[in-house]
Amino acid sequence: MFSEPEVTRLFGPRRNPADISAEELARDAEQAERILAWSERAQAALDEVTGTGRAAGGQVTATVAADGKVLRVDIGERAMRLGSLQLAEEILAALRLAGLDAARRTEELVRESLPGFDPAGALAEFERLAAATWR
């Protein structure tokens, strides 16, 4: 269960709703609208993120979307001389590298859009909270 200081750190100090002014509500509503507009723009930008990976000395190239969907796999002539097992391993290696590239590009986009935000730190905090005991 979360302690009071941890709740305050995560959500801010507790306030009596009767103490919230109309100006604060209006300001918060405007901020919520800006965040919603930003999230729509950010989603459009994230939808455009792709990653590329190469293996087999550049003879196998894979491109994936940010969500991991395979968009394209190109196999050069020299790679076709590989045995089927080795070719499959090279394709998987290119796909793994493409996924890592897409993740890196996504993190860059988030960092540029939200200065001061640490995606890796946020993920670690989320995982810590998800593992916490809730009562």
TrEMBL record:
- Put simply, this protein is called YbaB/EbfC family DNA-binding protein
Q: Which GO terms describe its molecular function?
A: DNA binding
State the source organism's domain of life.
Answer: Bacteria
